[in-house]
Amino acid sequence: MDFSPIKKAIVSFEEEKIKKLIEEFIEKGIRPQEILEHGLIPGMKEVGRLFEIKEYYVPEVLLAAETFYAGFNMIKPLLIENKSGRKGRIVIGVVQGDIHDIGKNIVKVMLEASGYDVIDLGKDVPNERFIEVVDQEKPDILALSSLMTTTMVHMEIIIKLLNKKRLRKTVKVIVGGAPITQEYADKIGADGYAEDAAGATRLVDRLLQGNE
Q1: 63 & 146 share domain
Q2: Which of 69, 128, 143, 187 has its CA 20 to 30 A from that of 39?
Q3: Which long-range contacts (CB under 8 A, 24 or more apart) does 187-190 make?
Q4: Contact 93, 130 (CB under 8 A)
Q5: Do residues 63 and 118 both lie within one domain?
Q6: Do β-strands 172-176 and 141-145 pair in parallel, antiparallel, or remain unpaired?
């Protein structure tokens, strides 16, 4: 089966075309997992590659993400019936006081495109909310984003709260955002740092799947 038209539709932001293609594939009896793995994921991976080499920028990635979700949302109910196919659960959010969420949104779509379940808490998320959700949802990874030097301090506070509530050993914490560095991630005791969405996906793969 040739899944390349789905990949091409994502790379060229053809939302209506991808809906039509997904419909046709489902009607032909192609499994949703195959559509995801051979069509949708390669499409977003190509977008990630183009973003890394600076052929695509944030606006193009967001357009591609909208196209991806147009297709993904059609097969998501079918995928939920077979949860065993998912790779892991991630909680993601922008820390308290910070309303900049474009980077977080790109990371989210790349992680979902890679087969992870992502719980998105949005932006300006209170510290205690992260703790509550980690306790309730038992994610494999907590991904924290900050775009401001004045809000990045909340990452350290969240990690300290996880320790205090004895939840730190149950979840890996990764951090990212413009002012964040590997040095800062090490200083606050995070499990990993990535400077962009493609790097975040590789980091999660490495932490959860043992892949480089």
Answers
A1: no
A2: 143
A3: 187/156, 188/155, 188/156, 188/159, 189/156, 189/159, 190/144, 190/155, 190/159
A4: yes
A5: no
A6: parallel
Separation between Cα atoms, residue 146 and residue 95, nearest integer Å? 6
Give the residues across from 73 on adjacent strands: none
- 166 contact partners, CB below 8 Å, separation of at least 6: none
* Predicted pLDDT of residue 58: 87
User: Are residues 142 and 200 located together in one domain of the fold?
Assistant: yes
When pLDDT is averaged across residues 32-55 and rounded to a whole number, the result is: 89
- The continuous run of DSSP H or E covering 79 comes out as helix 58-80
Same domain, 141 and 196: yes
The answer to whether residue 211 scores a pLDDT higher than 50 is no
Q: Which of 19, 53, 84 is the last residue of a domain?
A: 84
190 CB burial (10 A radius; 0-12, 13-18, 19+):
buried
CA–CA dist 101, 121 (Å, integer): 11
Full residue range of the structural domain in which residue 78 is found: 4-84
Place of tokens 């506070």: 157
pTM over 0.85: no
The number of domains in the chain is: 2
pLDDT tens-digit series, residues 165-195: 999 999 999 999 989 999 999 999 999 999 8
Quote the DSSP letter at residue 36.
Answer: I
